[in-house]
Design brief:
mainly alpha, 131 residues, de novo design (two linked rop proteins)
């Protein structure tokens, strides 16, 4: 099945789910007063879906891979900020575990998708050389 719009990408859908969860937890009474961490984690989580979309819309495999790698970096950034929020008691261990599990899943799916696209790119190059 060929994906023709970014809204069909599972990684984009999952990134939106995570974005909503991050916005929800960062609105709690402790987190909301820490403007630096709140703004940083929100910017980082929005960056994930934004980079997935931007790369997809380039209509170029190399660019898509590049933007997916940036998105994957943002996933790590959100995980780090989530750990900080847990360590300073802005969120509970249960909240942390639930969101971190989704972030790890998204990181794995994104990494697998990058590997798939890189393999496809290599096969395409080999096919051109064989002609």
């Amino acid at each position: 099945m060929r994906i023709t719009k970014f809204e069909d990408l599972n990684i984009w859908k999952l990134s939106l789910k995570i974005t909503k969860l991050i916005y929800d937890i960062s609105a709690n009474r402790f987190f909301i007063r820490d403007f630096g961490l709140k703004d940083q984690i929100r910017r980082a989580v929005v960056s994930i879906s934004s980079n997935i979309v931007e790369g997809f819309e380039k209509n170029n495999n190399n660019e898509f891979i590049r933007y997916l790698k940036i998105a994957k970096g943002s996933i790590g950034e959100v995980r780090n900020q989530l750990i900080i929020a847990k360590e300073i008691n802005y969120i509970s261990l249960i909240e942390f575990d639930n969101i971190n599990k989704l972030l790890l899943d998204l990181a794995n799916q994104t990494g697998s998708f990058i590997s798939y696209l890189e393999k496809t790119r290599k096969l395409s190059k080999l096919a051109k050389l064989a002609k």
